[in-house]
Design goal:
Elements (H helix, E strand, L loop, with lengths): L3 H6 L2 H26 L2 E3 L6 E3 L6 E3 L5 E3 L3 H11 L2 H19 L2 E3 L11 E8 L8 E2 L3 E2 L8 E7 L4
Antiparallel strand pairs: 1-2, 3-4, 5-9, 6-9, 7-8
């Protein structure tokens, strides 16, 4: 318990401000719990809220981090820089599968066959999941999924209205 000298050194506005901040934090925590009960989560990157029931809205990047589809192009390069090689490869594979399942992404093995950039909503170069980036499959044969390059192009085409 602070003595009289300590109490007099604290300004009344300081303790009132602290109380207000604590009250606001408590209310924010309650709102977050309510959103969670309603099935709404925030994007880790832009902090906008999305319904969990909306298919393809949020990518589960692990560790409680959910990233909305719109933020993937900005988030992914930043995320890659912070991961170990193994972590990046695992998360990249998960991202490719999610893009294919939720956003009809197509995988191209030949860059000459990519759609025009004006037709691309999202463009990602990823390690070939079939050969794990080696360019070889079953011994010395060239991987047919990436034409021996070890990488593929994952494209989500723009929607035509």
């Amino acid at each position: 318990m602070p003595d009289q000298a300590e109490r007099s050194s604290e300004s009344p506005s300081s303790s009132t401000t602290d109380e207000a901040v604590n009250r606001q934090q408590f209310e924010l925590d309650r709102l977050k719990e309510a959103f969670d009960l309603l099935g709404v989560n925030a994007c880790h990157w832009c902090h906008k809220y999305y319904r969990r029931a909306e298919p393809g809205a949020l990518f589960d990047a692990g560790g409680g981090k959910l990233v909305c589809y719109a933020c993937i192009p900005q988030w992914w390069p930043q995320c890659c820089a912070q991961l170990t090689t193994k972590e990046r490869e695992d998360l990249e594979g998960k991202l490719v599968f999610w893009l294919k399942a939720s956003h009809n992404a197509e995988v191209f093995k030949d860059p000459a066959k990519l759609p025009d950039s004006s037709q691309q909503e999202l463009h990602l170069v990823a390690k070939c999941l079939e050969c794990r980036g080696t360019g070889k499959s079953l011994g010395d044969d060239t991987c047919r999924f990436c034409m021996g390059r070890g990488t593929v192009w994952v494209i989500v085409s723009r929607k035509h209205a």
